[in-house]
Design a protein that fits this description.
Blueprint lengths: L4 E8 L4 H19 L4 E9 L2 E9 L6 H12 L2 E2 L2 E2 L4 E8 L2 H7 L13 E8 L8 H18 L5 E14 L2 E14 L5 H15 L10 E4 L15 E2 L4 H4 L20 H18 L5 E8 L8 E5 L10 H11 L4 H8 L32 H8 L1
Parallel strand pairs: 3-6, 9-10
Antiparallel strand pairs: 1-8, 2-3, 2-11, 4-5, 7-12, 8-9, 12-13
Length: 385
């Protein structure tokens, strides 16, 4: 593996069309879980000019007000333009009941533990590059668009909801040391000039990026194609689950086969990816490795993972092997769907907040982002001894 290289990650704002779709799907999921913690939900969303289409499968004793949820989410993001207006858009709803064959494979029965909601493989990753143990490129790419969104919501800047960022970071001896290139593309109001938008972007760059990583050699591109007035779903169709690398590790780690948004936590695409991140983060937080990647895999209807793969990329400390750490992990947490949901308290309306700025590397507060806690460190260390 090279030790001196450039690595690039991107992020997108809550107003990016794909993220609008993710937000709607997770808002609907939260509405179900608020009234029915055992609800089964898999809802996909498409957004385009003044149109939202939702489709999927649900099983619950509760039926939400889909129309109000969708319009409320879009209004909160900040869309009220003629071509995509929360009050004026058309909504098409094709959500239907969950297949009984899926239900019989997943549900807990007298002599059968609850099985995984689907087959698949999931990855979790952590690295000692930032305080939240995330890769530096994706961490700071998220912070750029997040800071701009906060300023927009506060009314400090005349920006639209749609934006992207991209960071190329220089690594030396395997460690991030400088920012090679910064790209910010942000929707803005018509009265702003290119220089106005650049000034706003530079203020955020100075707010959130390490000053020592920026020099005269750093290349900075702000709205490189020119003005960016017409944006969002009116300009580009959005779909749920189309920004999976943005959602995870910015390409620094591998990704499994499934997206997250709109899926209840019996779907291991989501819950097991959270568990894998939780375990990897606790291993790095325990000082057992500089970085760690964990793969889990499941079969639909089967409770226990079929396999666990752990790789510390030759960074394990204190003479421990990857196999020893993996065995400690297996003893430290149940990785059945039910065990994961119980450990991380996932049957709660906590998902709308995950729909933008990454599912990982966020601050665990209250019920939200429980998989970012490092409360398993002592247990993993005890199981190593």
């Amino acid at each position: 593996m090279p030790t001196n290289y450039l690595f690039t990650s991107e992020s997108v704002s809550e107003g990016h069309p794909d993220k609008v779709a993710d937000r709607i799907s997770d808002t609907i999921l939260d509405a179900f879980l608020a009234k029915d913690p055992e609800a089964r939900v898999a809802v996909e969303t498409l957004v385009t000019q003044n149109l939202v289409v939702i489709a999927g499968e649900v099983r619950s004793h509760f039926t939400p007000d889909y129309d109000a949820l969708i319009r409320g989410a879009i209004k909160d993001i900040g869309y009220s333009t003629e071509d995509f207006h929360h009050a004026k858009l058309e909504i098409i709803n094709h959500v239907h009941g969950q297949s009984s064959e899926i239900a019989q494979g997943v549900d807990e029965a007298d002599e059968k533990e609850e099985g995984a909601g689907d087959q698949g493989l999931m990855f979790g990753y952590a690295v000692n590059e930032t305080p939240d143990l995330m890769p530096a490129p994706i961490h700071y790419a998220h912070r750029l668009v997040e800071d701009l969104a906060e300023r927009r919501h506060k009314g400090e800047v005349s920006l639209g909801p749609d934006s992207k960022s991209q960071l190329t970071i220089r690594y030396e001896d395997g460690k991030p040391v400088a920012i090679d290139t910064i790209v910010v593309s942000h929707q803005h109001e018509e009265h702003l000039s290119q220089e106005d938008v650049r000034k706003i972007a530079m203020e955020t760059i100075e707010n959130v990026l390490p000053a020592e990583w920026i020099s005269d050699a750093t290349k900075i591109h702000v709205n490189p194609t020119g003005s960016f007035i017409f944006g969002g779903p009116a300009a580009d169709t959005g779909l749920t689950g189309r920004k999976i690398i943005v959602d995870t590790y910015g390409g620094m780690s591998r990704h499994g086969g499934g997206a997250f948004s709109g899926k209840d936590p019996t779907k291991v695409d989501r819950s097991a990816a959270y568990a894998a991140r939780y375990l990897a983060k606790n291993i790095v937080a325990a000082g057992l490795a500089h970085c760690c990647e964990i793969q889990l895999c499941y079969a639909i209807g089967v409770a226990e993972p079929l396999a666990i793969y752990l790789d510390t990329f030759d960074t394990a400390k204190d003479g421990y092997t990857d196999d020893q750490i993996a065995e400690a992990v297996k003893k430290s947490m149940s990785l059945t769907p039910k065990g994961i949901r119980k450990q991380l308290q996932l049957n709660k309306p906590i998902y709308a907040k995950t729909s933008a700025y990454g599912h990982f590397g966020r601050t665990a507060t209250g019920d939200h982002f429980s998989w970012e806690r490092t409360d398993l460190v002592d247990k993993i260390l005890a199981n190593l001894s």
